[in-house]
Amino acid sequence: MATVTAKTALPTDEDLHVAVSSLKMISDGTRLKTLFLLEQGESSVVGLCEALGVTLPVVSHHVALLKVSGIVKTRRSGRHIYYSLSHLGRFAVTTARRLMKD
Description:
Blueprint: H1 13-25, H2 29-39, H3 45-52, H4 56-68, E1 72-77, E2 80-85, H5 87-101
Antiparallel strand pairs: 1-2
Helix pairs in contact: 2-5, 3-4
């Protein structure tokens, strides 16, 4: 039986924690659909509700989680908040699309 050895340094526990947390965030269908919608451009919670066909509290909960994890970012215009993908969010969408193709 072959023995596994680390030829390169393994990620730190902190780096692994960040990766695991981000993957957990996109493992929910509603959140992933939200990211696919935001890939098309920024949107308000109301716009996301209409596109997803779910209630405002549900969408608000999911975008709050995505924001805290750094996957989406916000822009305020008067009383309205608009959500868009961060760099990490774009990477998450690209990764999800690759996984769906395979």
